[in-house]
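Researcher: Excuse me, tokens okay?
***
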Amino acid sequence: MKEIIVIKCGGKLVKQRVYFIPLLEAISDLFTAGISVVFVHGGGIQADEMQMKLGIPIKKINGKRITDTQSLQVVKMVYKGLVNLDIVTECIKLQISAVGISGVDGSIVIAKKRPIVNVLNYKTNTASDVDFGYVGDISSVNPKLLSNLLDDKYLPVVACLGTSRSGEILNINADSLASHIALAIHAKKLFYVTDVQGVFGKNYEGDYIHHLSLMKAQELMQSGIISDGMIPKIENVEKALYGGVETVIVGELDTKKKWLDTLLENKYGTVITKN
């Protein structure tokens, strides 16, 4: 079976060319070596910038976007338009045959609109019912279009949008999308590109944790050493590993060699495995 790696990258790193371009250069070398890649991206920082330019209020709770009608229009425009095209254009400059799509295309991602949920606000320490609006939780992933693109040696660049069964476009969490896609296409490895070198812990004297088993990761979450925004990422890591992905890596690198050494040999970042 062909080796497949899923890489998830946030919009912040796309803007940081010193990190982003070496990553694309490494992906180019992977394709030359016969390794397939699916590139999943967000674009939250770009959506925030666009909403501010347009005078549309940014609504979030615990860092999660509330996607009302106006915000959805921005998210569609930014994720599938500005950010997706930007990534594809940079790929073309490196002779990577990239195709920009979203989870809507080919009905890749079918999702359910998130119901109103009771949420504890970390800032105010108060709980209230929250309507996240047009935010979707993934029900299923159809990998056919992705598989066809990979078979034809294209790099799918996937924006984090999906659709309900009735055709309603929904904003999808990019970390969740990456793990679901990795499982659907039987990827061997999943790389969550973050804005830090790896998973840090309070007792690790400033250095990131180089290797974690799922059991150890769960212990660190329960003890509060892994906290805040890293928790939902680790939860998606668990889903991927329990579902059959062999290795998940969390981190950020700054040279083509480091990206390659990690994508091929797990050399940098926090390497998380089932055992």
In short: The chain has nine helices and 18 strands.
